[in-house]
UniProtKB/TrEMBL annotation:
Upper taxonomic lineage: Bacteria, Pseudomonadati, Pseudomonadota, Alphaproteobacteria, Rhodobacterales
Entry's Gene Ontology molecular function annotations: 3-methyl-2-oxobutanoate hydroxymethyltransferase activity
Pfam families per the UniProt record, alphabetical: Pantoate_transf (PF02548)
Pathway: Cofactor biosynthesis; (R)-pantothenate biosynthesis; (R)-pantoate from 3-methyl-2-oxobutanoate: step 1/2
Metal-binding among keywords: yes
Residues annotated as binding Mg(2+): 44, 83, 115
Complex formation: Homodecamer; pentamer of dimers.
Residue sites binding 3-methyl-2-oxobutanoate per the record: 44-45, 83, 113
Gene: panB
Record's protein name: 3-methyl-2-oxobutanoate hydroxymethyltransferase
Length: 273
């Protein structure tokens, strides 16, 4: 089994074979993707995907740590990156360091990811200078949904310069890679061309240095909504529905459990001589 890459290995993949990544929140899903992924993200999307929250704002450090520990048990060859949840880093570099260090120490993650560009550059520099590799996340940043006003494409037309400035700021601050979420393809390609660090696209461009998707989205498990950028590679939600419907029918007509699912017993011996 190959040794899991670290943040510097990921950085060195700039311009090479595209980096493959998915989110994971549990041990079995991490085990399934581990042989196929370069890195796995314990995303704060866990709040919406597994906990039924309507945004990522309610995700806590405790949730991230619990899911991070579960994912770590399922990984062998892929690197683990973990999201810093809303309100765990925005106050400033000291708060960010304290919580990033805790996430890494308690889960074994090799890096943290945080949302923000120019406004987070100082924090990214503080963390990276003190031993914490940071993956940045710019473009659509779901933790800022209340100020962005919706999950819309970021960096169109006059907004492009702001996203480009964010990319340069996080790269200059020492981020080892940057997620570009929901930005126009031409802008993603320009950022990828200008940056010395790998760009990881989600709703961005096939020209990015890597791609990431939310695993429950691409497997068809999370169906509350489907962003345009999601490709469904499977329809596991529909398969689960029909499996459970069949189980319900068989319980009701007593065809489950069948003979092979129950335990035979020896008939108690009668009148021992
Ligand atoms: O939380 C998440 O799943 C993410 C990815 C979509 C990049 O941040
Ligand atoms: Na996230």
């Amino acid at each position: 089994r190959k040794k899991a890459p670290n943040a510097e290995d990921i950085r060195a993949r700039k311009g090479g074979q595209p980096l493959v990544s998915l989110t994971a929140y549990t041990t079995p899903m991490a085990q399934v993707m581990d042989p196929h992924c370069d890195f796995v993200l314990v995303g704060d999307s866990v709040g919406m995907v597994l906990h039924g929250l309507t945004s990522t704002l309610g995700v806590t450090m405790e949730m991230m740590i619990l899911h991070g520990q579960a994912v770590a048990r399922g990984l062998n060859g892929a690197m683990m990156v973990i999201d810093m949840p809303f309100a765990s880093y925005e106050e400033g570099p000291a708060q960010a360091f304290r919580n990033a260090a805790r996430l890494m120490a308690e889960t074994g993650a090799g890096a943290v990811k945080l949302e923000g560009g120019v406004e987070m550059a100082e924090t990214i520099r503080f963390l990276t200078k003190r031993g914490i590799p940071v993956m940045a996340h710019i473009g659509l940043t779901p933790q800022s949904i209340n100020t962005l006003g919706g999950y819309k494409v970021q960096g169109r037309d006059a907004q492009a310069d702001a996203v480009l400035a964010d990319a340069h700021a996080v790269s200059d601050a020492g981020a080892f890679s940057v997620v570009l979420e929901k930005v126009p393809q031409v802008l993603a390609d320009q950022i990828t061309a200008e940056m010395a660090i790998p760009t990881i696209g989600i709703g961005a461009s096939a020209g990015c240095d890597g791609q990431i998707l939310v695993v429950d989205d691409m497997l068809g498990f999370f169906t509350a909504f489907k962003p345009k950028f999601v490709k469904r590679y499977a329809d596991l939600g529909a398969q689960a529905d029909s499996a459970i419907a069949q189980y319900a029918a068989e319980v009701r007509d007593r065809s489950f459990p069948a003979a092979k699912h129950v335990f035979a017993d020896t008939v108690p011996a009668k009148g021992n001589t």
